[in-house]
Amino acid sequence: MNPHFKASKTFENLHDKYTIVDDVWEGTEAMRREGNTYLQKEPKETSANYQMRLDRSVMEPVFKRVIMQSVGKAFTKPIQVDGVPSSLEPLIFNADQSGTSLESFSKDILNDAIKYGITYLLTDFPVIEPNSTLADERLAGAYPYFVNIKPTQVLDLSVGYIDGLAQLINFRFFEEVSEYDGFTTVSQYQVKQFSFDESGNVSYTIWREDKNGNEYLYDKNIIRNMKRIPITPVYANKISPFLGEPTLLDLAYLNIQHYQKTSDVDVALHYGAMPMLVIKGMKDQIDPTTGESTNEIVISPNSGFHVDSDGDVSWLELNGSGISTYMQNINELKASMSLLGLELTTPKAIHETATGRLLDEHTKNSILKVITIDLASSLERALWYAGQYMAEEVDATVTIDTTLTVTPDAGIENVLAMVKAGILTPSQALKEITERRLLLTNPQNDESIN
């Protein structure tokens, strides 16, 4: 395989996890497309019966719903950007050269950060002419733009420490670009690699494949004015500098298990909802119109059966006890998924003293709040890189309202609602409430209660 198109071992392992969350995000269509990967074929089950079962199975989009609701909570109020020079103001309204506002672009960034645990914000600049100067580019109205590089695109990266900070030394990813061949748009896959050398230069190289599938160097250049690779990580679940893994991978696995369990119940109901006729010792039946003997069975109020003296006719009907157990298990899975979803906005209580007195609401953080604050910082860094392209010092401030990213009251209401729906038992609910420190004490351990 062409070396520049091959992922490193680290990213091969991460891509396996990213594929899972991508499939769960896509939902039912991905589950059906991937077939046996998520819904295993049973022993001795025919291909036709398996396909029928697969076509009837539907995934409830819990994983996707949790992420979308979380992003909505983080952007209930408009994003605020201050300190942007006039040369970069177009970025506010067209952040990606495709007409996407910075606010909408930021929502997509947050969505992918939560989904994959990380995403990468590239600050790029359009190519005007090979030998154009900054003055030429300003005259042409060119300005930097942002690109969201999903971790599923990344093939490899390396990190070094410069001035005591972790910095990218190399970053390699694949992308799809559109080119015009006459009146036809042609999609072309290529690999782009950013490098930082010892002299302090930032350069890029682009690799493509020819008609025979062999890679070749398509383009290379040194990026003017840039002293660092202009890629900013947006973390949600950091595992090491510039690396992350899916934030809600456990929820994705539970969503898959819920899909499998509901598929099993659907099959049981499909085959067990109707009773089955059981006949013991049946004699040949005589057709009254022809007088001929036949083994054909006709079920109607106007027909009957001739059986031997020790024969019997009865109905075999499912009593439902097995399905009830399965449904209880499905409800428990729903409860687990709901609680995992709440973890994003559950407050991390900070104690002022050993007495355990909780601080005011504004001093509490949640996972979602921390991610949102990090997103704002990453956008500020990306704007700083944009200033480097324009040879301007940029000290922009990005503010994203985090009021609804911590929801302790909603947390307890959701837990109580699950008790009412029979998803949680009262003892399970009490455990969840006390672990979230929504009660100062656990009544089960209070010796003053008789």
What's a quick, concise take on this entry?
The chain is an alpha+beta fold and 450 residues long.
Per DSSP, the total helix count is 12
**Radius of gyration from CA coordinates:** 31 Å
By helix and strand content, what is the structural category?
A: alpha+beta
Sum up the overall morphology in one term.
elongated
SS strand fraction: 15-25%
Say how many strands there are.
16
Strand order of the largest sheet: 4-5-6-7-8
Head-to-tail CA distance between termini: 73 Å
Work out the helicity level.
Answer: 25-40%
Poorly predicted runs are 350-363
Question: What integer is the average pLDDT?
Answer: 82
The string of secondary-structure elements, in order, is: HHHHEHHEHEEEEEEEEEHEEEEHHEHH
Biggest β-sheet strands, sense, barrel: 5 strands, antiparallel
Provide an overview of this structure.
With 450 residues, this protein is of the alpha+beta class. Among the domains are: 61-248 and 367-405, no CATH class; 274-317, no CATH class. 37% of the residues lie in helices and 23% in strands. It contains twelve helices and 16 strands. It has a five-stranded antiparallel sheet. Strands 3-2-9 form a three-stranded antiparallel sheet. Strands 1-16 form a two-stranded antiparallel sheet. Strand 7 and strand 8 (215-222) form a beta hairpin. The N and C termini lie far apart (73 Å). The model is unreliable at 350-363 (pLDDT under 50).
List keywords for this structure.
about 450 residues, alpha+beta, 5-stranded antiparallel beta sheet, 3-stranded antiparallel beta sheet, 12 helices
